[in-house]
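for ur thesis appendix - 5'-nucleotidase. copy paste whatever u need, i formatted it the way the template wanted (i think)
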Amino acid sequence: MASSRRLRALITNDDGINSPGLSALAAGARDAGFEVVVAAPHVDASGVGGSVMSVRDGDRTLLHRRELPDLPDVTAYAVEGHPAYIVHSAGRGWLDPLPDVVLSGINVGANLGHAVLHSGTVGAALAASMHGWRALAVSLDTPWTPLERPHWESAVHFLPEVLDVLLAAPDGTVLSLNVPDRPVADIGELREARLSTFGAVQVHVDYRDGEHGEALHSFVTEISTPPEPGTDAALLAAGHPTLTELQGITERPGVLDSVRRSLNAG
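the 3d part is after this line
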């Protein structure tokens, strides 16, 4: 990484190009010394995970130049595609020069537990690791109905420290940072956390057959059992920002050997 040039950061998210959290993250990366380019979905793409879908006209996916609030000198695109699609496109010839890191967020709402599988914010970061890039997903623990003015500055406050950790890590490292939606003065120290079983909330789905036909109705319920100590959900609830290293899909060798040993033992 030793070079006289500035490191380049691709900034994306899943809440869409108009999210204030996206602008806050881009400004934070710029202030940390990165050369910044922004590319985010043209509409909200929350919950798409690692999807690489895009709106296509033949072999074209449209880009729309945008100017972000208070960032007139930052190149920004609204892309008619999902976050992981944007990252993969950057690595398949679109962006030149390529990014050194991918920063995704600041997400509206925490990304906790094994439910991060469904997050488009995390999906973009995991897609970056497939190209050998370091990546960071940043999420703010806003209520389900966010406050009028979330504390984006609190997430940005921890960005320099976490970026130092990220840049010191091996290529392809993916980190997930969750920050309480509180003033900086009311937040505890940064803690490393393991993933909780699921997260802080769950989506419940009901089947209904009414006058408009059959439908699935979704609503969010809080998990009633206390989170396990040391997990991201527990530490975040206690007021600590949490940092977790994530790994993408990988193989686990020995499946046939274990089956054969089991059969032979029987």
